Amino acid sequence: MSLSGRIALVTGAAGAGIGKAIATRLAAEGATVVVTDSHERRLTEAVTDIRQATGATAVGHVLDAGDREQIVAVTDAVRAELGPISILVNNAAVNVIGSIFDYEPESWDRVLAVNLTGPWMLSRQAMNHMRDSGTPGCILNVSTYAPDVGGEGIETPYAVSKGGLSVLTRCCAHEGGPHGIRVNTLSMGMVTGTRFTDTLHPEMQEGERVKTALGRLPRVEDIVEAAAFLVSDRSASITGEIVNISAGSHMRY
Length: 253
Known about the structure:
Shape: globular
CATH class: Alpha Beta
Structural class: alpha/beta
CATH architecture: 3-Layer(aba) Sandwich
């Protein structure tokens, strides 16, 4: 119960992906978990699942991570109802694939809003909670090594947004450090146990597996273990870092 007494907000945490798995683990370690997602039905189901699995306090807030006004409203509500946020996991992300030659400006705006502006706004809100409360806090940005390949696979806006997220991590780590606020990025490639890998693109697994140093793809459990470590006091001297959980595949770039 290393996170007892802490309030953790996890974005994009409905469904059966990495966000929900991280939220469940943080609840199991004693945190009061705030689950956010734009899909109301899945959000309700996720909150129920986390409560039943851990016996911990879990609440849900509908949140479009690309909507600044909603971000302010939700974080203010959490502070009023539960107290200041002490752990923030920026997990929500979208990807609209297309060639830069004909990419729609509206899609560019949406990807950047959810993947970069949203985490900035959420970090701004949470860091004010942490500073004002006078207690150490932690932010974890969930990312990928897509910026290292320059948008390979015609996903330029996604890669650009995640590259910006790494810079945001370092900037927030610098400014938050004097207030005891740590900020890190958890980076990955394909992960088994996710809808993207197992359901949408199973045909990609072998091609990605052979590029790893360990000869296997990382699992959701590997990501969760790293996330739990990085937001806990076990990593008290780690900040401003990009931690790759990729079975070594990031080294090919």
